[in-house]
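Subject: design request, 157 residues
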């Protein structure tokens, strides 16, 4: 009888040890759970990287267009110019939409926009993927375009 108990002891210890172990979680799952949701809120320099490689840091400022955003809307300043889009981010997917209703006439302020605004806006509208990039930048891509948002915090206007 004592021999049976001694033989069964390792099995009992192994069973107890297995009950306390949780399945291992991947590093990606831990990082995703810990990372705050991605937002475009802030003041940015928007760079169109289709034809040129630009370093993802503040040395690129002045080579793109200024872009402002809150938690659900982005625009090329000034806001009254009407170059505005609503956006939503779900994971790594971004969707943009024109906030104006079809046929709605918008009274815009009389201001000239930078020459490449329409080109940047068209590329932005085709973006469908968003991801954090080095140096606090955000990369948007889709429709054959790559855009980089460089933060403007602390930059003299």
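Subject: RE: design request

Done. Sequence follows.
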């Amino acid at each position: 009888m004592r021999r049976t108990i001694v033989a069964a002891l390792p099995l009992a210890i192994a069973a107890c040890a297995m009950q306390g172990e949780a399945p291992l979680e991947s590093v990606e799952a831990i990082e995703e759970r810990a990372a705050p949701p991605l937002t475009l809120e802030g003041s940015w320099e928007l760079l169109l990287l289709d034809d040129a490689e630009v370093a993802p840091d503040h040395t690129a400022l002045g080579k793109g267009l200024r872009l402002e955003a809150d938690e659900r809307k982005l625009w090329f300043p000034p806001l009254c110019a009407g170059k505005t889009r609503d956006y939503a981010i779900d994971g790594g997917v971004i969707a943009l939409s024109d906030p104006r209703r079809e046929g709605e006439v918008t009274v815009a302020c009389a201001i000239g926009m930078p020459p490449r605004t329409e080109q940047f806006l068209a590329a932005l509208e085709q973006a469908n993927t968003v991801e954090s990039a080095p140096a606090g930048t955000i990369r948007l891509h889709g429709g054959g375009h790559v855009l980089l948002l460089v933060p403007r915090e602390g930059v003299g206007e």
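The first helix runs from residue 2 to 20.
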